[in-house]
Write a structure and sequence with these properties.
heterodimer; A: alpha/beta; three-stranded antiparallel β-sheet; B: five-stranded antiparallel β-sheet; 12 helices
Chain lengths: 292, 370
């Protein structure tokens, strides 16, 4: 039992990596198509990023620089845990800086800084099937994709508008990739959808529990579904980030006290820190400095 | 003042240290040994082996101890180890007729060749708390029968003699048994894959589904043809040698459920079967498995599919407790980015609602203060 603790580079054995790489290559060849793969049990629970971890493990090389974010932040517990996992089993360099990373594994956000050629964004995906909540059966949804039968999705969006005046999907907002497959962008807020369109970076999606991999290759059309008279819109925030003053970024709402006091700060912690280092200050930071 | 939430490696490390402390518990008590868990909590070890699909009592006991007795956590730990092991090959099908029987009962025959052997069972014990177990009182040696080397005929073979039960069935010559740990499942499944999934499925989930078939949700008129528990030899064909080599014995529980069948255009009236086979001693699981297996064969027999237990995609997609627990528990991970998006939408819709109903517009964010 002493050899229990020895694992291959990046945990997975080479055979498994090869199997995953084949699935990734197929996914890149058919943008937005969900490729079934023989997902392994990973040493972290299903639903906690096992798909993303397997994709990262399969593409990671010793010279890569890895960044892991969850909710846009490098210091959330699960991001810390996954980063520590790869440091342990692959001994790779890690960073919190978006522009230094060659591979960025993410849950629920796309970094604010525009990604560039040569970078790979790996998404952790809980439910890869965009049609799942309209049709629970895999046998049916596969057929619907094959026949490009997406009417049901448009009816759902239409019913949202008829009932609420809005499309009531705020995250995991469905997109159409390269004019063919409707794809789930993973539960990122729809704010991030436009960043996927024509990105220079390679975007890979891993769903471990559901055993699916899909991809958006660089320079690929990614269009959020909408209607001519109800065009797709992203969220807008009334105020800039309270710490760095950034506008047109996604903000987290932080509850300050029990009297209704709130502040809004960048969800992308690296972006926020970078701006502050460059002398930008938001309302809260300015006030704090004045007090000191 | 706002303090940035630093999840922090220190917090995680401290939490794990506290976990180790709670696992060990009172230091004035001796630590429980792996041998003790194997010997005295054997059925817990068996369940972990069965649902982790790995036959190794020591590692399963280690997982039980590491998981502080949380069965699903233990199953998860052992599975995560199993998945890193290379696959050498496929064993020859085990021959349960040649089982070294420890327990064997049939509910369909009063007596039968080989007899009824109760073995180490909870059946017919009165579930009264036993104060003698509070202390380590000596336990008498059990009676032992002389080892019977001859194989014990399976009940299905008795019925097959009359042609009253469906046969074991045959797979095409070139059929390679599936392996759900190496290939993604694609529905509909062949029965080999379905049985594999059921064999590692959650005992509680299968028990509830099996129970539902007894209460009218896809009734299958079952009888326990036979339950047998004992050791079988696992043999591996070595191509270089040209014959099968024994790898050693494993303990298994097998259940053959006999079910009524009226017959169809293709098949004469006969009994059909549901099958359960589980590592270790796990009668409840083997019986539940065989009931669910039979219910899932509805389509094969042209029966109406009316209940959850007959729905293959529903049953197999939700029977794996490692997958289920991971996804249910992932809800405690931060979701504040998505929640923010929902908050924004609800606030917007609320403002529109209030405007429609003539309510004065408040700053929703300040509402709580007022």
């Amino acid at each position: 039992m002493t050899d229990l603790a020895t694992y291959n580079f990046a945990y997975l054995d080479e055979q498994t990596k090869r199997m995953i790489r084949r699935a990734i290559l197929k996914a890149i060849s058919i943008p937005g198509y969900q490729v079934p793969f023989a997902s392994r049990e990973m040493p972290m629970p299903y639903g906690w990023g096992t798909g993303g971890v397997q994709v990262t493990a399969a593409i990671l090389g010793p010279k890569d620089v890895l960044k892991v974010i969850d909710q846009g932040a490098d210091d959330t517990t699960n991001a810390v845990s996954i980063r520590a996992f790869f440091q342990k089993v692959a001994n790779v360099a890690v960073t919190t800086k978006t522009r230094e990373a060659t591979i960025i594994q993410t849950r629920h956000r796309i970094p604010e800084e525009t990604l560039t050629a040569g970078q790979t964004l790996v998404y952790q995906v809980p439910i890869p099937e965009p049609l799942r909540f309209l049709e629970p059966r895999e046998t049916e949804t596969r057929k619907m994709h094959a026949l490009e039968e997406y009417g049901l999705m448009h009816v759902k969006l239409y019913e949202d508008i008829a009932r609420n005046g809005h499309i009531a999907t705020t995250y995991a907002y469905p997109v159409k990739v390269e004019g063919r497959y409707v794809m789930d962008p993973s539960p990122t807020p729809k704010f991030d959808n436009p960043k996927m369109h024509m990105s220079e970076a390679l975007q890979l999606f891993g769903a471990g529990r559901e055993k699916r991999i899909y991809a958006v290759p660089p320079h690929t059309d990614v269009v959020s579904l909408d209607f001519e008279d109800h065009p797709f819109e992203i969220q807008h925030f009334d105020k800039p980030c309270a710490l760095c003053g950034a506008e047109h970024v996604y903000l987290d709402e932080v509850v300050l006290d029990d009297k209704g006091g709130r502040m809004f700060v960048c969800s992308d912690t690296d972006h926020c820190e970078d701006r502050r280092e460059h002398g930008h200050a938001g309302e809260m930071l300015a006030r704090q400095e004045a007090a000191e | 003042m706002y303090v940035a939430v630093k999840g922090g490696e220190a917090a995680i490390a401290n939490a794990h240290q506290l976990l180790a402390d709670r696992r060990r518990g009172d230091r004035s008590l001796p630590a429980i040994s792996i041998d003790q868990i194997v010997a005295q909590l054997g059925l817990a070890v068996d369940r972990v082996m069965a649902e982790a699909s790995l036959y190794d009592r020591e590692l399963a006991a280690l997982a039980v101890r590491q998981a502080r007795g949380d069965m699903i956590e233990a199953i998860f730990i052992l599975r995560a180890y199993r998945t890193t092991l290379p696959r050498f090959g496929m064993s020859v099908p085990v021959d349960t007729a040649k089982m070294k029987i420890e327990r064997r009962i049939s509910a369909t025959y009063k007596d039968l060749p080989g007899g009824q052997l109760l073995g180490p069972t909870f059946d017919y014990t009165h579930r009264l708390l036993d104060p003698s177990l509070l202390t380590d009182e000596p336990v008498a040696e059990p009676l032992r029968r002389t080892v019977d080397e001859s194989s014990m005929m399976r009940v299905s073979d008795i019925l097959a003699g009359e042609g009253l039960i469906e046969s074991d069935g045959h797979m095409p010559e070139d059929h390679v048994p599936g392996d759900l740990t190496r290939e993604p499942l694609e529905f509909p499944l062949n029965r080999d894959l379905r049985l594999q999934a059921l064999a590692r499925g959650d005992e509680g989930f299968l028990l509830a589904l099996a129970y539902s078939t007894q209460r009218g949700y896809a009734r299958t008129h079952p009888f326990v043809g036979e339950v047998r528990i004992g050791e079988v030899e696992v043999e591996l064909d070595i191509p270089e040698l040209g014959f099968a080599v024994s790898l050693g014995p494993v303990q298994v529980t097998e259940c053959q459920m006999v079910n009524q069948f009226q017959g169809s255009a293709k098949n004469p009236p006969q009994f059909t079967r549901g099958y359960g086979l589980v590592f270790g001693q796990s009668e409840r699981k083997a019986m539940a498995m065989s009931l669910v297996d039979r219910a899932l064969r509805a389509e094969e027999f042209g029966e109406d599919i009316v209940a959850p237990a007959q729905d293959e995609e529903f049953v197999i997609s939700h029977s794996d407790n490692v997958q289920a627990t991971g996804f249910v528990e992932h809800l405690k991970l931060p979701h504040y980015v998505d929640f923010q998006a929902e908050l924004d939408l609800v606030r917007r819709m609320r403002a529109e609602y209030d405007a429609r109903n003539g309510v004065e517009k408040n700053d929703p964010i300040r509402d709580a203060a007022e």
